[in-house]
Automatic annotation (TrEMBL):
<dbReference type="GO" id="GO:0009279">
    <property type="term" value="C:cell outer membrane"/>
</dbReference>
<keyword id="KW-0175">Coiled coil</keyword>
<keyword id="KW-0998">Cell outer membrane</keyword>
<dbReference type="Pfam" id="PF02321">
    <property type="entry name" value="OEP"/>
</dbReference>
<keyword id="KW-0472">Membrane</keyword>
<dbReference type="GO" id="GO:0015288">
    <property type="term" value="F:porin activity"/>
</dbReference>
<keyword id="KW-1134">Transmembrane beta strand</keyword>
<keyword id="KW-0813">Transport</keyword>
<comment type="similarity">
    <text>Belongs to the outer membrane factor (OMF) (TC 1.B.17) family.</text>
</comment>
<dbReference type="GO" id="GO:0015562">
    <property type="term" value="F:efflux transmembrane transporter activity"/>
</dbReference>
<feature type="coiled-coil region">
    <location>
        <begin position="326"/>
        <end position="373"/>
    </location>
</feature>
<keyword id="KW-0812">Transmembrane</keyword>
<dbReference type="InterPro" id="IPR051906">
    <property type="entry name" value="TolC-like"/>
</dbReference>
<dbReference type="InterPro" id="IPR003423">
    <property type="entry name" value="OMP_efflux"/>
</dbReference>
<dbReference type="GO" id="GO:1990281">
    <property type="term" value="C:efflux pump complex"/>
</dbReference>
<feature type="coiled-coil region">
    <location>
        <begin position="145"/>
        <end position="196"/>
    </location>
</feature>
<protein>
    <submittedName>
        <fullName>Transporter</fullName>
    </submittedName>
</protein>
Length: 431
């Protein structure tokens, strides 16, 4: 009971880091679990393919009650009487040659297993990126709240200063009312900002399948803008790295290999099938004229058999021919899909590269704008304190400065996310 309580407190007080959130999502996400089951299914299919190389072994047995004219299985003669008989045996079959289809099916199962693993890797990348985006959104909302809170502190300081100026007769009382109105608006904005944080937290909790929304939170950490080493590389190098590492291309290549293997399997149906068989059987009847007991009859009436069977396909309603043609078309489709996947990936990389460049420029421009608005705000504050401008003009300068700060935060996290996406294309994993 104490351990459970301790675990509950730990869960409530836990603040998730980005790495922990990504790791938890990879372990618990439903789509990833489905992909993992597909990998398990592919492993079973490979075991099935291995099993086709092994001989089969089956046992059979039957107990019959016969009345009238029936063949006695022991004497192999007709008897017009009532008797009970029992037969049992074992039979084994082994495929010796089937147009190499067993071998091709085993090779196909291995290809399908690799493709399932690639699909699992792609799903992990997609989920990781989704979690990272939701996580960065929370960080943005939290930093945005801090900006609003700092501006409220400035407004409260100016309210106190304006009170002094009004009492000294330097500024009219209307300026005091303007500052109070601005302060009330800022307090409303804090409520909205807090709601945005709560919504962003719930969104991430839902992605992680965590139901305790009230206690869910992330670690308070500031992410600095990373070095743009990826964008210092030519985009062609990023594209080439993506083609070598991205799962989309690997999956399309595997699907093409699978389609080619399916064609080989279909062509195998043109060839004869050679199989071997062997078996053992014995029998008993209760009207044995020699009076032998059950065990003795089974021992003395047993026999073995073995042989080989050859099946040569001659005509099957064009089924094999049409199946071969169908699989040839599937190869063409797989080739086109592979080409399309390469084109899509190249387009996505160029788009991600351009977006990251644009996001970096937007961030740098936002920093410059913030610096300019900081100077403008400082200048307006000095002029307001000596009564040169009124409270409305000062509030406008403060609002522009706050907007500039918020834009810096927005462009910062937008750039970080787009850089992460570009790094993912370059082969740098998020987990």
């Amino acid at each position: 009971m104490i351990a459970l309580c301790t675990l509950s407190v730990f869960t409530q007080n836990k603040k998730w880091t980005l790495e922990e959130a990504v790791a938890y999502a990879i372990e618990n996400n439903i789509s990833i679990k489905q992909s993992e089951l597909e990998v398990d299914q592919a492993e079973i299919q490979k075991d099935d393919a291995i099993g086709r190389f092994l001989p089969s072994l089956n046992a059979s047995g039957s107990l019959n009650s016969n009345t009238g004219a029936n063949i006695n299985p022991v004497t192999n003669s007709f008897e017009n009487t009532t008797f009970t008989s029992f037969t049992t045996g074992f039979q084994s079959n082994l495929t010796l040659f089937d147009g190499l289809r067993n071998i091709r099916q085993f090779q196909r199962a291995k290809l399908d297993q690799i493709a399932a693993q690639y699909r699992l890797g792609q799903m992990k990348d997609d989920v990781s990126l989704f979690v990272a985006n939701a996580y960065l959104q929370i960080l943005f909302e939290k930093e945005n709240l801090k900006i609003i809170q700092s501006q409220i502190q400035i407004t409260e300081d100016q309210l106190e200063r304006t009170n002094e100026l009004v009492d000294a007769g330097v500024v009219p009382r209307g300026d005091l009312l303007e500052i109070k109105s601005t302060l009330a608006s800022d307090e409303q904005r804090i409520v909205r900002a807090e709601n945005q944080i709560r919504i962003a937290l719930i969104n991430l909790a839902q992605i992680l399948l965590i139901k305790d929304y009230e206690n869910f939170d992330i670690a308070d950490a500031e992410y600095e803008v990373p070095l743009n080493t990826i964008m210092e590389k030519p985009v062609s190098e990023v594209v080439q790295a993506a083609k070598e590492s991205r799962y989309e291309i690997k999956i399309s290549e595997q699907n093409l290999d699978i389609a080619e293997k399916d064609l080989q399997i279909a062509r195998g149906a043109y060839y004869p099938t050679l199989s071997a068989f062997a078996g053992y059987n014995t029998r008993w009847a209760d009207n044995d004229f020699l009076g032998r007991d059950f065990i003795t009859q089974l021992y003395e009436n047993d026999g073995t058999f073995f042989g080989a069977q050859l099946q040569v396909p001659i005509f099957n309603g064009l089924g094999v021919r049409n199946n071969v043609k169908r699989n040839k078309l599937n190869i063409d489709l797989a080739n086109y899909r592979k080409e399309q996947a390469e084109l899509d990936l190249e387009s996505n990389v160029y788009q991600a590269y351009t977006d990251a460049q644009g996001a970096l420029k937007a961030y740098e421009a936002a920093l410059a704008a913030e610096e300019a608005q900081q100077l403008a705000y400082d200048y307006s504050r000095e002029r307001f304190e000596v009564g040169i401008i009124n409270s409305f003009e000062f509030s406008q300068a403060l609002s522009r400065f706050e907007n500039a700060q918020s834009e810096v935060i927005r462009t910062k996290y937008d750039y970080i996310f787009k850089l992460k996406l570009l790094e993912l294309y370059f082969g740098i994993s998020l987990y």
